[in-house]
Amino acid sequence: MELPIGFNHLTITGGIRDAARRDPSKVALRISDRSVTYDALIRRFNQVANLVREGLGLQLGDHAMVISHNCIEFIELICGLSDAGVVVATPNPHLSEREIALIVADSAPRVIFVDERSAALLASSDIAGRRVIIIGKDYEHSLSTCSEQFEPSGITEWMPFSIPYTSGTTGQPKGVLLPHRSRCLTYFAMASEYGCYGPDDHFLAIAPFCHGAGLAFALSSIFFGGTCTIMAKFDPAEVIAALHTGDITGTFMVPTHFHKIFSLPEDLLNRHRGHGLISIISNAAPLPQATKLLIVDYFGEGILHETYGATETGIVTNLRPADQLRKPNCVGTPFPCTQIELRDENGRPVPAGEVGELFSRSPYLFNGYLNRPEETAEVIQAGGWASVGDMARCDTDGYYYIVDRKKDMVISGGLNIYPREIETVIERLAGIDEVSVVGRPDPEWGETLVAFIVSTSDTPPNAETVIATCQAELANYKVPRMVHYIDRLPRNTGGKILKRELRNLAQKLAAEA
């Protein structure tokens, strides 16, 4: 499909190339003591594109794969491959050999770029007929003979450029086809919403690039001509030291990052108070209200955004800084150009205050799951409305609250129970670090509740105290029948709690009781 005369297709490198033309000598990316200017970065994009098109013979629409921890080369590869019209799968380097093998089989890459630390992950994969290039000397040698001149052509904005794999909290990971258009429009909305993505801004990239959000927040900074400093590995002490310099104006962290920061010694935290931040963005999992209070106390009011969304739908809502304290446990109002509907089990809209499945419609939507048309149809429904199965409610002011995952809902005695409500009550107790509530089969009630708790001390509240607190604040059918303390909650590589593992553990504990 041709665009009208005078219009150009949006591509993820379009803004970066514009920035290079405006200020070629400006630093685009930094990591440790290494920095790369915009001019040098574009030349590397071009070499990558020439390598796969001319050197390896890949064509428009072919697949490649990048398995790597955060580094400058990751950005080079994503952008250079996308300029060549090659779609890039980006599995997490913390996955197992078996999981990597499944993703290799699913995405069928013709070439795999892998960092030295992750190369052994390919041991179980079928790499016959696939070129494997190790990021390092092998990669540099491959690029050394490639021209630094390349003109992207034939790329349309609705073509996918990336295939991040969902973290698989409920089953096997699925490849999410992300088009240029949805990501570019996301960048524009993020720039207006967060205020830290201008040419004079400096972004600290902490989250893994293999995830859709981590890469999007990093690329936005250079899409608009700013500077992005990359952390190869998250270190909470290094983060607060970097922020304390005053150079960083924006960063994105998930709740686990904040938890590790506020677990640092108090004297270290106090030595690094003060910063130049305009925005801190949180995403990927609910941010407990107690953690928000710590963030506001340490970094100050007026900078924290809590964003809700999914890889498939893009950003759906944002709770802005002014609302963080007055709207507890809330994910905010619709992101720019986003419509939201909450629907009951019959597809009818629910009134304010009632729980329904959250559907959103926006220009940030994915193209579908790779090789999974039936599952795509479950997410994208008539009229472009999409749902990833989250249950939510909306208050009379138009603010949204995620209640729970539809698949995590527990039915006990015929009544619907959303574990997040119980978790929020238990989290307020002193000595509680993290909580996850799941259902276990029960012959009388269908399911009963089990609370798994990680404590912050050697003397956490006992099970009787936890149950009494729930009895005082919740209906009787929402009170856990069992409380079990564990060292840590099982999580996937994206930091999300694996409730299916907890459900299995709950059944095992019941059998042993």
Automatic annotation (TrEMBL):
Residues 421-496 form the AMP-binding enzyme C-terminal domain. The keyword Endoplasmic reticulum does not apply. Keywords: Ligase. The keyword Electron transport does not apply. Residues 17-370 form the AMP-dependent synthetase/ligase domain. One of its GO terms (molecular function) is acid-thiol ligase activity. It comes from the Bacteria. Gene3D superfamilies: 3.30.300.30, N-terminal domain of ligase-like. InterPro entries: AMP-bd_C (IPR025110), AMP-bd_C_sf (IPR045851), AMP-binding_CS (IPR020845), AMP-dep_synth/lig_dom (IPR000873), ANL_N_sf (IPR042099), ATP-dep_AMP-bd_enzyme (IPR050237). Belongs to the ATP-dependent AMP-binding enzyme family. PANTHER family: LONG-CHAIN-FATTY-ACID--COA LIGASE (PTHR43767), NONRIBOSOMAL PEPTIDE SYNTHASE PES1 (EUROFUNG)-RELATED (PTHR43767:SF1). This is 3-methylmercaptopropionyl-CoA ligase. It comes from Govanella unica.
